Amino acid sequence: MDGEPQAAPRHRSPLLDRRGAVPAAGPDAGVAWHYGDPTAEQRALTRGGAVVDQSHLGVVRVTGPDRLTWLHSITSQQLADLPPRTSTETLVLSPQGHVEHAAAVVDDGASTWLISETAPGLAAWLDRMRFMLRVEVADVTDEWAAIGEPVSAEGAEGEPVTWADPWPRTLPGGTRYGLPDDEHPGADRAWRLVLVPRADLADAVRAREASGWPLVGTWASEAVRVEAWRPRAGREVDHRTIPHELDWLRTAVHLHKGCYRGQETIARVHNMGRPPRRLVLLHLDGSGHLLPDTGAAVRDLGDLLTTGEPGREIGRVTSIARHHELGPVALAVVKRSAPVDVEVVVDCDGGAITAGQEVVVPGDGVSVDRPAAHGPLTRGLGGHPML
Question: Which residues cross the membrane (predicted)?
Fold first, then answer.
């Protein structure tokens, strides 16, 4: 689960010095995986009363009078008229439409704040794109830290900078591949990030503990995220990812804004349908008490029942969680053409394990508002049926 080689974190949270703290690894290195009782921690978070150390996330601040129109012009979301204290998210895409950076976005009226897992690279890219515009970009991760709360409210005037996760609400200009907003498993997940001065992180957490909220680790927050099918840049994104594959057009892409880098791919795949891959939730067989690592191969059943050998690789596990009610679950990105109604096999040390699929992005790869075809698809000049 957290078995990837651990890179040295940019910041080590002082909350790791708490008794019982077990460090997280991979993209969550620097904060606690849990504090000794992960099941109780997850239940507290699910009930809506807990605080999560998210100080490993990066923070980029953009200032200047051109900041919103500039960010609007170079990223995937409608930001030009973003009101203060209104949360959204945006993506930086490659010219081919692949996700390079993802950022939670909120403006406080004077600065635009971007919370990202790739803050140094994001800040460097933004700085290169400033040209002659009246904007300034700063990676302020050394000064600011995030804490997570199971609250859906936006920050009010006079309160700390707060980003309320819009997932899975389909934002204006967005579209969805998966379930309607009110039927989505993420509809009941409240989540926001509050920025506090990094030097005050421990005090901010203690203030919440004094009100009865326990401090919980990323074991809990990741289990709830996986249950909600919520994509995360540090887990679900690789060098080939396009937003359609993760149902990320709900919250991170505006389909009707002007041109930006990667916009051609966004429009083409939306209009034609069938992105190359699709996100899926896997319900893992926990009878053998085995869990795969992130990156484990997902295969079709093949001849597993007769020869013990699974079939071809159809995708990779991106996130693993031990959920207090669902049991072991995972998010995986698989080939769109893989059947949606069959069990699969996941590679694991100690033996492959079977898993049932829960569809996140449908196998037909068509969004709910894909433009209607103008007529039958034909080949050749003039569309002659024999050409």
Answer: none
Distance CA 204, CA 202 (A): 5
Query: Per the omega criterion (within 30 degrees of 0), is the bond before 168 cis?
Result: yes
What is d(CA 335, CA 331) in angstroms, rounded to the nearest whole number? Answer: 13
Is the alpha carbon torsion for 62, 68, 70, 73 positive or negative? positive
Q: Does residue 81 sit in the same domain as residue 213?
A: yes
The alpha carbon of 14 is separated from its chain's Cα centroid by a whole number of angstroms, namely: 26
DSSP-derived secondary structure for 129-174: T-TTSS-EEEE-TTTEEEEEES--PPPPTTSPPEEE--TTS--TT-
Exposed / middle / buried, residue 234 (Cβ in 10 Å: 0-12, 13-18, 19+): middle
Any domain includes 39: no
d(CA 88, CA 82): 9
Let me know whether 113 and 247 are in one domain.
Answer: yes
99 shares its domain with 245? yes
Residues 247 and 131 grouped into a single domain:
yes
With 0-12 CB in 10 A as exposed, 13-18 as middle and 19+ as buried, what is 275? buried
Q: Which residue type, as a one-letter code, is found at position 382?
A: G
User: Does residue 365 belong to any structural domain of this protein?
Assistant: no
In a domain, 68, yes or no: yes
- Write the CATH number for 299: 2.40.30.110
Dihedral, CA of residue 189, residue 194, residue 200 and residue 201, to nearest 10: 30
Structure tokens at 233: 């840049």
3-state secondary structure of 181: helix
pLDDT recorded at residue 376: 53
Domain co-membership, 135 together with 64: yes
Q: Nearest CA to 99 among 238, 278, 246?
A: 238
Q: What's the confidence (pLDDT) of residue 290? A: 84
Residue 220 to residue 200: CA distance in whole angstroms: 23
* pLDDT (tens digit per residue) in 28-52: 999 999 999 999 999 999 999 999 9
- Structural domain of residue 347, as residue ranges? 277-359
Q: Does the predicted model carry a pTM greater than 0.85?
A: yes
As given in the structure block, the two tokens for residue 253 are: 């892409």
In a domain, 374, yes or no: no
Name the H helices within 28-153. 38-46, 67-74, 119-128
Looking at the structure of the chain, the number of domains it has is 2
